[in-house]
Amino acid sequence: MDRRCRSRRDARRNLGDEMSCCPPSPARVGCASPAKTIDETGGSPGAVVRFPDTASFIGTDRPFLKFDGEAPRRAVRLKAFGIETETVTNARFDAFVAATGYVTEAERFGWSFVFQIFLDENLSAPAPVETPWWRKIDGACWRAPEGPGSSVADRRDHPVTHVSWNDAVAFANWCGGRLPTEAEWEHAARGGADDRRFPWGDEEPTDSTILCNIWQGRFPDMNIAADGYTGTAPARSFAPNPAGLFNMAGNVWEWCADPFRTRSLARAGRERDRIAAAERERLMKGGSYLCHISYCYRYRIAARMGRNPDTSTGHIGFRVAYD
User: Fold this and answer.
1) pTM of the full predicted structure?
2) Are the CB atoms for 250 and 204 separated by under 8 Å?
3) Of 232, 242, 207, which Cα lies nearest the Cα of 287?
4) What CATH number is given to the structural domain containing 283?
5) Distance CA 23, CA 25 (A)
6) Phi, psi of 276 (to 5 degrees)
7) Rounded to an integer, what distance in angstroms lies between the CA atom of residue 166 and that of residue 220?
8) pLDDT tens for residues 216-227?
9) What one-character DSSP code corresponds to residue 51?
10) DSSP SS3 for 296
11) Which domain holds residue 194?
């Protein structure tokens, strides 16, 4: 990473992220070789739901976090596409790595972000100033989600995490797919063109009404885990949406193909877009197990967030789409 790039990222202010469960885009220290390009299709698609060519929409006229660019609702025309019913699991990603020798960016950089509650209380690790509940952990990666000594052996059916946008694209190429666009993701999450706030409808999940894997309790220091999961849940947890897709809200953030833009006319929004463009930020949808209505209310279908394409954390994954 050249000095100019590192300086820009170190100076970056994460405008609008005061209510984000994500760490800032990482200032990766040191050099890493470019991500390996996977040119040959070798993997097999998972279970796929197909959507026909149709008129649909993106966004909402009922925004909660206007700064994120949730509004306005906009008409779109979608070409026929398919999308996998679940996020890519640790087992599938393991097969990809075994077949291709792929090394993720977290592994090549030597560290990734881990949420504080998953760490030994005696572990000392630096935290970003903006989001002190994250820790930069040497050795954290998809194989060792909490750092050295941890494993995914008992989480093979859970979503793979600590994967960057670049890693997700490499996997999608391998199985003959791609990442979904934001419009495709939202259409799939709704199960079609019906206007709904969540994949299951408009009912708000709470600490007692369990509809998805999000935070229950007081963020960020007390998670009562009423849904049964402190971290990730299996990719096929909870009831699917009307189209048969699992966990389109909560569990893990999902990378999409689009660059992140807010389309805001406000001065602060234009500055956020300038930063996002400079960082080449990519879009994420769906929220994660760290979201809660009191803090990061981004498990709604219209909610969105952007991060640098080499970002990796313990709550970001992806699912694959197909033409």
Assistant:
1) 0.90
2) no
3) 232
4) 3.90.1580.10
5) 7
6) -60, -40
7) 29
8) 999 998 999 999
9) E
10) coil
11) 3-322
